[in-house]
């Protein structure tokens, strides 16, 4: 799962396609000078890399391969809309007027590329490491009053039955549990899986991300990045350390130091193609993990597709009443 | 790491529904900060994201309905007969998550709020799971997404 703030229209993909290098080695190039040198070799520790993109700005990298096995935001909306329709009908049959809130259609496109933090020169120049507009919305959320109008006990019981977040789609899971079982289908071993990112998918995505951080080829470009930063007066072992500097406060305006640091960071990243190498290693690690788990992943994808087809059919259709004993 | 407090009855999930429906049996009040309360965030009630010290929703817990950095917050209380982690910092120390919101998705992130290119793990409405092994003990913040109001 990638940052909501990064979910924006993906532009410039074509320019990256032109920058792909087909090689068994990694590019640690100097984009500004128009020349490049190859690095890698004996320090390489992970899966073989065949293609290294050379992004020239944010949101240019391709989707990571594991994202094929999870729902897009638009597909999630199909499931939750169907869920809400079933829940509403179920609750109505119990004499309750309750509509499960659903998300508004997303206007943007998911960014599924798994970029490292801080790769947008414009953002770095104005806000440093933290998107203050996101933070401002979070401040507003923090300040709102909570629980002004709690959902009534009758509604809560009918909606959730005796379920908890870790067994919601059980027969006594109320209208919500029944809706999930209906959408997931009788064959689904765990109906909740369709409404979350499957653990295997999460594991492959996150493990590849962290494996890439520790990969020798990535460490090479981190070293080049670190030297570049050092030459500009900033001392960090890696981009991860820079972005996590406790001096950067998302809920306060960016300081001049933060902006200078983030600007140098972005510049050094592009100078040494840090994002391109990191992305290439992630893709290679994910492909290895996908190959090793292909059967399970194909089952997951088939389950998601089946749930999507069911959700498309039943959305807006009347649903039967709750089958479990917990509601009412 | 292990601090034993009075273990409340059985599975004392602090998950007290707003409606008063206790999750996991006896509706005992947990001793930690912030019960894990259910709700429907889009209508203003705001269910909690409940983080647990151990996998499988065991041990000390921390619940919050807001988008927050975990820095400065601590686990408290006991769940599933364990008070492990009680008093320990939440940041870089959580192992499982239960989303007590019935409408909003919570995402636990590796980096603090507002960081572009953040990476994390999402838990759908009324969903739950263990944190991925890479994210476990590597949690920095959480945000909400979904319907307006989340």
Mean pLDDT across the residues of chain B is: 73
Alpha carbon gap, first and last residue of chain A? 36 Å
Q: What value does the average pLDDT of chain A take?
A: 78
Strand content of chain B: 15-25%
**Cα-atom Rg of chain A, whole angstroms?**
24 Å
Structural class, from helix and strand content of chain B?
mainly beta
Total beta-strand segments of chain B: 8
Assembly status: heterodimer
Q: Segments of chain A where pLDDT lies below 50 for 5+ residues? A: 1-44, 145-149, 318-328
Question: Outline of chain A, from the CA principal axes?
Answer: globular
Main β-sheet of chain A, in a few words?
A: 2 strands, antiparallel
Shape of chain B: globular
Give the termini separation of chain B. 34 Å
- Write down the secondary-structure element order of chain B: EEEEEEEE
Report low-confidence residues of chain B grouped into runs of 5 or more. Answer: 1-34
SSE succession of chain A: HEEEEHHHHHHHHHHH
Task: Classify the beta-strand content of chain A into a percent band.
Answer: under 5%
Strand order of the largest sheet of chain A: 1-4
Tell me the structural class of chain A.
mainly alpha
Summarize the amount of helix of chain A as a percent range: 40-55%
In DSSP terms (H or I, runs of 4 or more residues), the helix count of chain A works out at 12
Can you put this structure into words, describing what you see?
The complex is a heterodimer of chains A (328) and B (150). Chain A is an all-alpha fold. Chain A has helices at residues 13-17, 73-93, 121-127, 132-143, 153-160, 174-184, 199-214, 216-231, 239-243, 256-271, 274-292, 294-314; strands at 21-22, 26-27, 38-39, 51-52. Chain A has a two-stranded antiparallel ribbon with strand order 1-4. In chain A, helix 2 (73-93) crosses helix 6. Residues 1-44, 145-149 and 318-328 of chain A have low confidence and may be disordered. Chain B has 150 residues and is mainly β. Chain B is 0% helix and 24% strand. Chain B is built from no helices and eight strands. Chain B is globular, with a radius of gyration of 14 Å. Chain B starts with 48 loop residues before the first strand and ends in a 5-residue tail after the last strand. At the A-B interface, helix 4, helix 5 and helix 7 of A face strand 3, strand 6, strand 7 and strand 8 of B.
């Amino acid at each position: 799962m990638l940052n909501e703030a990064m979910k924006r229209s993906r532009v410039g993909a074509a320019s990256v396609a032109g920058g792909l290098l087909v090689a068994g080695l990694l590019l640690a190039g100097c984009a500004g000078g128009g020349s490049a040198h190859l690095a890698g070799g004996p320090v390489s520790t992970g899966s073989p890399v065949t293609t290294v993109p050379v992004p020239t700005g944010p949101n240019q990298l391709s989707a990571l391969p594991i994202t094929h096995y999870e729902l897009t935001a638009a597909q999630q909306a199909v499931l939750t809309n169907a869920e809400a329709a079933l829940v509403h009908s179920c609750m109505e049959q119990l004499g309750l007027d309750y509509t499960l809130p659903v998300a508004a259609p997303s206007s943007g496109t998911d960014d599924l590329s798994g970029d490292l933090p801080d790769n947008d020169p414009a953002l770095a120049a104005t806000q440093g490491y933290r998107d203050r507009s996101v933070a401002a919305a979070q401040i507003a959320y923090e300040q709102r009053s909570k629980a002004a109008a709690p959902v009534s006990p009758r509604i809560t019981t009918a909606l959730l039955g005796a379920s908890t977040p870790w067994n919601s789609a059980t027969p006594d899971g109320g209208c919500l549990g029944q809706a999930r079982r209906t959408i997931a289908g009788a064959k689904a071993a765990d109906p909740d899986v369709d409404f979350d990112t499957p653990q295997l998918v999460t594991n492959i995505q996150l493990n590849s991300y962290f494996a890439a951080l520790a990969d020798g080829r990535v460490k090479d470009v981190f070293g080049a990045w670190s030297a570049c930063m050092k030459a500009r007066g900033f001392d960090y072992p890696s981009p991860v350390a820079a972005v996590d500097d406790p001096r950067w406060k998302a809920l306060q305006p960016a300081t001049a130091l933060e902006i200078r640091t983030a600007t140098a960071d972005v510049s050094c990243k592009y100078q040494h193609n840090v994002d391109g190498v990191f992305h290439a290693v992630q893709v290679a690690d994910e492909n290895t993990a996908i190959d090793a788990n292909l059967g399970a992943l194909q089952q997951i994808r088939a389950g998601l597709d089946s749930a999507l087809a069911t959700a498309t059919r039943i959305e807006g259709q009347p649903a039967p009443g709750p089958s479990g004993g917990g509601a009412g | 790491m292990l601090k034993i407090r009075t273990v409340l009855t059985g599975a004392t999930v602090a998950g007290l529904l707003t409606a008063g429906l206790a999750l996991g049996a006896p509706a005992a009040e947990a001793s930690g900060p912030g019960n894990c309360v259910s709700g429907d965030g889009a209508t203003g009630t705001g269910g909690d994201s409940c983080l647990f010290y151990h996998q499988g929703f065991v041990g000390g817990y921390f619940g919050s309905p807001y988008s927050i950095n975990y820095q400065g917050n601590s686990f408290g209380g006991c769940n599933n007969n364990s008070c492990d982690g009680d008093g320990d910092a939440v940041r870089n120390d959580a192992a499982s998550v239960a989303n007590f919101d019935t409408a909003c998705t919570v995402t636990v992130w590796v980096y603090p709020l507002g960081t572009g290119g953040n990476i994390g793990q999402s838990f759908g409405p009324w969903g739950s799971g263990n944190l991925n092994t890479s994210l476990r003990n590597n949690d920095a913040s959480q945000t909400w997404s979904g319907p307006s109001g989340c």
